[in-house]
Design brief:
Elements (H helix, E strand, L loop, with lengths): L6 H6 L2 H36 L4 H12 L4 H13 L2 H16 L3 H25 L20 H21 L2 H24 L5 H35 L2
Helix pairs in contact: 2-9, 4-8, 5-6, 6-7, 6-9, 7-8, 7-9, 8-9
């Protein structure tokens, strides 16, 4: 990264700062690649869904999952679905307020921006594509469009950014790994619950995961880019 910096900036930065900014620079480059790749994949996947190339597989998978239904399992799935819906709205407000009270304005802004605009983005995509809900024996009635799954997308953003913040605040690999694995497990189960309840096809859920992943990566990428720019801007003024 040194070739991109002026000699004056290089003299001001300590070796530790150079290492930190070099790592952030690499993260930005990798983040750009991942963001663009996941966006392209979402577009390609969406085109297949609109062309109904996924419908047969979706129907077969849904019917297989429906065959597992029991009253007890339905209660569990309804709770998991709750963790990807109303719970996220409530928890997001609590976490944002807690971060603000702790003086973590940047993190609070990042968190609330990711959740709020992710929600609006999901609804805009649904409205534009107008993909209907499954009609095969749903256990819950939903009125809005189906693709991509709002629960899947919101849960990926919410639990994903929580795992990111755990690493951001602790910098401990073991704790961060546990938080990431726990988040991914919850995200997967929430997606499964939406298919089980008959309100989404498998493709809706997968698209929600991809869209949520893309938005999460993009928000973090923008945050790191702004931090990188502001850091060098402040250094260059010394």
């Amino acid at each position: 990264m040194k070739r991109f910096l002026s000699k004056r900036v290089q003299r001001i930065l300590t070796p530790i700062q150079m290492q930190e900014y070099s790592l952030i620079f690499v993260e930005i480059i990798v983040g750009m690649f991942v963001s663009i790749s996941s966006f392209i994949y979402f577009i390609t996947f969406t085109e297949d869904v609109l062309a109904k190339q996924k419908l047969f597989t979706d129907t077969v998978i849904s019917q297989s999952i429906y065959s597992l239904r029991t009253p007890e399992l339905t209660s569990v799935m309804q709770f998991l679905s709750f963790l990807g819906g109303e719970f996220i709205l409530f928890a997001s407000v609590v976490i944002t307020v807690a971060l603000l009270l702790k003086g973590c304005k940047r993190e609070a802004g990042l968190f609330s921006f990711a959740i709020l605009f992710g929600f609006f983005l999901n609804n805009i995509i649904k409205y534009l594509l107008k993909v209907p809900r499954p009609t095969i024996d749903p256990l819950v009635i939903e009125s809005f469009y189906s693709f991509p799954s709002g629960h899947a997308m919101s849960s990926f953003i919410f639990y994903g950014i929580l795992a990111y913040l755990v690493f951001h605040f602790t910098r401990k690999k073991r704790i961060s790994l546990i938080a990431t694995l726990l988040s991914l497990t919850i995200i997967f189960l929430i997606g499964l619950s939406r298919v089980y309840l008959g309100v989404h096809y498998r493709s809706d859920v997968l698209a929600g995961f991809v869209a949520g992943f893309w938005w999460l990566v993009t928000v973090i990428l923008v945050d790191k880019t702004v931090f990188f720019y502001q850091g060098f801007k402040s250094v260059s003024k010394r």
